[in-house]
Amino acid sequence: MAMKLKYTTYNLEAENGLLVTRPAGKEIKEQIGKRLDKLEPNTVLLIDFSGIDFIDASCADEIVVRTMARIAAGEFIDRFVIYKNIADQHIENIQLALSVSDKLIIAVMASKWRILGSVNKSLRDCLIAIVGHKEVTARELQKLMGFKTVNEASTKLSKLYELGLIAREPFREPVRGGGRQFRYLSLLIGYKHDRDEYSTSADLI
Amino acid sequence: MRVISINCNTEDFILNKEVFDTRIAAQLNPLREEYLRLGRKVPKVDAFIIDASLIREADNYSCLALALLCEQLNDKFGPGGGITLKILSNNHFGHTFINSGYYGLISKIVDLNQTTGPYPEDESGSHHCVVKRIHSQDSIKRFGGLIKMAFFDYIIKANSPMKSSYKTYQERVGPFLTIGIELVQNILDHSQQKTGHRPFGFAAMQLLTEAIDIAVMDLGIGIPASLGQYTHSVLESISAIKLACQKKISRKNDEGRGLGLHYTKSYVIKLHGEMIIRSGKGNVTFNPSNDFAGEEVRFSGTAFFSGTQINLHLPLKKIGGCNGDEIEIYDL
Fold first, then answer.
1. What is the pLDDT of residue B114?
2. B96 touches chain A (CB under 8 A)
3. Which of residues 36-75 of A touch B (CB under 8 A)?
């Protein structure tokens, strides 16, 4: 049976809904780090912004950019982060903070998702394809994206995995010629958006 | 005229999952049955009134469920006169719901708080200036809270003409909060004191009829000294101020720093406002112009005065967009 990702939520909270100042962001970043440290492998932490009215660029830098930097540095192997309920009022300052780093994040709201941050188009397109197909091997991605070689697909997949944007499991079938193959999974593969969580309310009428 | 009221009030003034799933769900049973029976042929409702006027606290579930309810009412029984939500704006629930992404689904907010906010108008029609001492992280948050409250009170309650310029409450207040918070943060982050005392400063805000003025000041060592320029010539002061408004210029080296003044300036120009910075012996004014760089810079020398003072004049009427690049959205 294919590997399943587990999901758990961290709700951001702030007085008056204002998440501002760098020290406040640092404190939350540390809490997120402790939480990530305790998670089992192949778990996705959903950082929920629904309690936040406004986040400034300093907090966004600490909570978003530096958290993703720690993941990319290998501090939390096979633990992942998705940002949930990032609304329009959050996006501008989060994009601002991401614009000076090479970090990307996946943001979900209701039944939609988007990529925030800037990265080359090829990597972005790969990520979109993986989310669309839910899981791929390097060979499958090569065919999807029309890459000339499997190596090109492998490199993209490794990069996305390093950035903490996709998960991976060793491929269970033997590989011709030996070697190791991985199956890469979208972080959204098992994610259920709010309508399912609040199914009672969704069926009110 | 078909008007349906839904009462969300509770005796303990708290709205939570249990209340939502039992009492409010029970009120919706007749509507559910009607829709099951008639589907899209169900008679439209002229107006929904959702009364949460006594609620002071609500959990995240209830806020989201309330928003989803509005969406469904609008989808299945509307559009009629829209959905009126009665709340008390000056409590946590009022703030939380108003500032949620689903605010746009509510046609009309009836705020039963009956206050005029902390900004009574004077005879000229302008609101009084509010000045706050900035000395701690909490004071920064309070100043941000003031900006938020002022916008809510002034723009939404007073039915300001500005209301029609923006789609959502967040779009209105977001840029101004960003600017205000960034400026006051700089007081604590960057205003070193010669005497070694903890940094402090003052922030002021005044809502005018169609603009907002924000001013901050500190008595630190000033921008030129902060960037390593310890002489007090006019030209060097002006260069230092202009340099400080560029990206990634900060006396602190870590990544992610040095963006505050740069983005404040960018926002001010997008909003077609004006920013004046006085520090050292220099005074620099940024405002938009028709030249290719999109900004006009004027500068002059001043007598030396400790610290940095920044004045912003920001029109409230939306001119162009403040949002960044379009972000593609995908379906799950």
1. 37
2. yes
3. 48, 50-51, 53-54, 56-58, 61-62, 65-66
pLDDT tens for each residue of B260-291 = 787 788 778 777 888 999 988 888 888 775 34
Instruction: Tell me the average pLDDT across A146-155.
Output: 93
Q: Which residues of chain B have pLDDT under 50?
A: 113-126, 290-293, 319-324
Query: Residue A99: its pLDDT value, please?
Result: 82
Asked if B174 lies within 8 A of A92 by C-beta distance, the reply is: yes
Q: How far is A79 from chain B (nearest CA, A)?
A: 21
Determine how β-strand A112-116 pairs with β-strand B330-331.
Answer: antiparallel
Between chain A and chain B, how many beta carbons pairs sit less than 8 Å apart? 173
Tokens describing residue A43:
């778990």
User: Could you tell me the two tokens for A109?
Assistant: 């709201």
Q: Do A88 and B331 touch (CB under 8 A)?
A: no
Q: Do A51 and B60 touch (CB under 8 A)?
A: yes
Whether B178 sits inside 8 A of A65 (CB atoms) is no
* Spatial distance between the Cα atoms of A182 and A170, rounded to a whole number of angstroms: 4
SS3 of B202-218:
EEEEEECCCEEEEEEEE
A155-163 contact pairs (CB < 8 A, 24+): A156/A122, A156/A123, A156/A126, A157/A126, A157/A130, A157/A182, A157/A184, A159/A123, A160/A123, A160/A126, A160/A127, A160/A130, A160/A184, A162/A72, A163/A68, A163/A71, A163/A72, A163/A103, A163/A104
- Sort out which chain B residues have CB atoms less than 8 A from A100's CB and list them: 247-248, 255-256, 259
pLDDT at A32 over 60: yes
Task: Tell whether A195 lies on the interface with B, counting CB pairs under 8 A.
Answer: yes
ipTM reported for the complex surpasses 0.85 = no
Residues 6+ apart with CB under 8 A from B29: none
Helix, strand or coil, per DSSP, at residue A59: helix
* Among the partner residues A16, A91, A198, nearest to B61 by beta-carbon distance: A198
Is B73 in Cβ contact with A22 (below 8 Å)?
A: no
Q: Give the pLDDT confidence of B180-220 residue by residue, as tens digits.
A: 888 888 888 776 665 566 778 888 888 777 778 889 998 88
In the predicted model, what is the mean pLDDT of residues A123-139? 92
Judged by CB atoms closer than 8 Å, whether chains meet at B185 and A53 is answered as no
Higher pLDDT among residues B152 and A107, named by residue: A107
Q: How far apart are CA B144 and CA B165, in angstroms?
A: 22
As a whole-number percent, the residues of chain B with pLDDT over 70 amount to 66
| Structure tokens belonging to residue A193 | 């958006």
Question: Given CB atoms, is B61 within the 8 Å cutoff of chain A?
Answer: yes
